[in-house]
Amino acid sequence: MENFFEKSFHLKEHNTNTKTELVAGFTTFMTMAYILAINPSILSEAGMDAGAVFTATAIASFVGTAIMAFYANYPFALAPGMGLNAFFAYSVVLGKGHSWQFALTAVFIEGLIFILLTFTNVREAIVNGIPKTVKQAISVGIGLFIAFIGLRGANIVVPGEGIPLDLGDITSPEAIVCFVGLTVTAVLLVKQVRGAILLGILISTVVGIFFGVTQLPAGAPISAPPSIKPVFMQLEWTNILSADMVIIMITFLFVDMFDTIGTLVGVSTKAGLVDENGNLPHVKKALFADAIGTTFGALLGTSTVTTYVESASGVAEGGRTGLTALTTGVLFLVALLLSPIFLMIPSAATAPALITVGLFMMSPIKEIDLDDFTEAVPAFLTILLMPLAYSIAQGIVFGIISYALLKLLTGRYKEASPILYILAFLFILKIAFHV
């Protein structure tokens, strides 16, 4: 088995080993396993069968992640994206009154377009056209974003009354579990204990039992997965040429593309997987995995599959190859049988991992030239807007627009690529016409 892993993933070349990769993959899974509970909950609001969506979510996550593992050999995991599933349910179905089958069809078409764009190198050109400063800022912004997700998950930060955000009840059981887990994780990191983040999650989950935060499974811990039949291949081909279909499909396309690009660039920068120009080698293969995951996921019966920012937790544990991703993918299949166990892990127990990884993701800020305002302002906007707008994509949009404008208006237009100016122009049109 060791020889198979070495031959498939080139572990020695990446200065890693099987144990490190397995721990990293397990850690990534533990920080993103919440999608197995949240995705069925959100899509069921659109009228979809929750049990069937659970099964579709696990299988789609495995397929996309396995392609990432073997084809791209990167430590990134894929699953139905948060935000995209909310748009699917609350905007397309409940807001516009379309059927969930109509929404799945939009996701399927989007996936096909993604595949086409990947083969024509358009997506790769976009990734490589983003300047190094913005790429570094993306890593930092993602760090703040996922740390914010962790704080929200533990109810430490909550919506305020009369103000956008407020400090929650830090004496609540969820907050206490998070603080305990964060302290344990920090101490283990100081002691340089391998698997510190994973141990922090597990200890937090156990502590949560005593505070009523972790709910133990009522039935048997092993059960057969729910049938996928109610949502499998449920596409609706009527009205596919309507204006609504085009707008919805473009929205899925836009958000997925730049969430994925942002995640790939940010996590890769932190992992040291980029080259001297800040570009990710073999990015086309990583983007292809995302495109296939989305297309196949729509056929299975789930919303857009995308590369997960929580992959950063596995990278922080030393994951550097596709073996990390494969481990995560296999655990999604295992979760089909052990769903009662995996679903009992509360968000308060994964919050310490997200907060800690957020800290790790901050390090590229040291490489940003804060004395050059044509570099510093776009970087700052990228970093700031990701957590405040609750969107990786929006942070990238404002970072790219400001970078292009500042370079152009200061006569330093040659420092930005033509692709960047095209992107900035398209983003301005999007904002102007509310597309």
TrEMBL record:
Record localization: Cell membrane
**Alphabetical list of InterPro entries matching this protein:** Azg-like (IPR045018), Azg-like_bact_archaea (IPR026033), NCS2 (IPR006043)
Q: Specify the superkingdom.
A: Bacteria
UniProtKB keywords: Cell membrane, Membrane, Transmembrane, Transmembrane helix, Transport
Q: Which GO terms describe its cellular component?
A: plasma membrane
User: Where's it mainly located?
Assistant: membrane
Q: How does it sit in the membrane?
A: Multi-pass membrane protein
What residues form the membrane-spanning segments? Answer: 21-38, 50-71, 100-119, 140-158, 170-190, 197-217, 237-255, 330-360, 380-406, 418-434
A GO molecular function annotation here is: purine nucleobase transmembrane transporter activity
Family named by the database record: Belongs to the nucleobase:cation symporter-2 (NCS2) (TC 2.A.40) family. Azg-like subfamily.
The protein's matches in PANTHER family, at most eight in alphabetical order, are given as: XANTHINE/URACIL PERMEASE C887.17-RELATED, XANTHINE_URACIL PERMEASE C887.17-RELATED
What this protein is called in its record is Permease
Q: Which organism is it from?
A: Filifactor alocis (strain ATCC 35896 / CCUG 47790 / D40 B5) (Fusobacterium alocis)
